[in-house]
Amino acid sequence: MEKRFRKVVVGGTFDRLHLGHKALLRKAFEVGKYVYIGLTSDEMIRNKPYAEKILPYEVRLKDLLKFLDVNGYSNYRIIKIHNAIGFAGEMKSLEAIVVSEETYKGALVVNKARAERGLKPLEIVVIPIIKSHVGPKISSSLIRAGLIDPFGRPLQWKQNSPKDV
């Protein structure tokens, strides 16, 4: 299948790599010949829900690299980002950005920043939100809170199970 774009960008915290993250990354590799992955710095995540439980950058990077390796992806570059726009607001050669329905507004912010710099807007590729068994979506926040696993399955049974001796 012919790739639609030469260079695409996708970004996120990628904490507790879950089905939603994997769908986002797979879509980026499906549509792009080369994928730039923006991985949020530790400083950038301080105000996220359950921030104290977010894995450190190096651990998230290692998990991301493992996923990419297991899936045979080699046409990518991971770049640490320190704000919501990251390098996507200034890299001329990018053609598209891959986002979820939830992060679509972020793509609009990136395109606004690109327009202010005289760059072409990125085509926005949107994937649907992956639903969980306990709510409208699988999210790292629900995983960090101990409510679901990375597959969206509830973890309540663990809270009610007898304590290990």
Describe the structure.
The structure is a single chain. This protein has 165 residues and is α/β, with parallel strands linked by helices. It has a single domain (5-130), classed as HUPs (Rossmann fold, 3-Layer(aba) Sandwich), CATH 3.40.50.620. Helices cover 30% and strands 20% of the residues. It has 5 helices and 5 strands. It has helices spanning 19-31, 57-70, 104-116, 140-144, 156-160, and strands at 5-12, 32-40, 76-81, 96-100, 123-127. It has a 5-stranded parallel sheet with strand order 3-2-1-4-5, sandwiched between helices. It is globular, with a radius of gyration of 17 Å. Mean pLDDT is 87; it is low at 158-165.
Number of helices: 5
Shape-level CATH architecture: 3-Layer(aba) Sandwich
* Largest sheet composition: 5 strands, parallel
Spatial strand order of the main sheet: 3-2-1-4-5
Rg on CA atoms, Å: 17 Å
Supply the CATH class: Alpha Beta
Write out the CATH superfamily name. Answer: HUPs
* Large-scale geometry: globular
Low-confidence stretches: 158-165
Helix/strand structural class: alpha/beta
Strand-residue fraction? 15-25%
How much is the average pLDDT?
87
Oligomer: single chain
**Quantity of strands, as a count:** 5
Helix % is 25-40%
CATH topology assignment? Rossmann fold
* Count of discrete structural domains: 1
What is the rounded distance between the termini?
54 Å
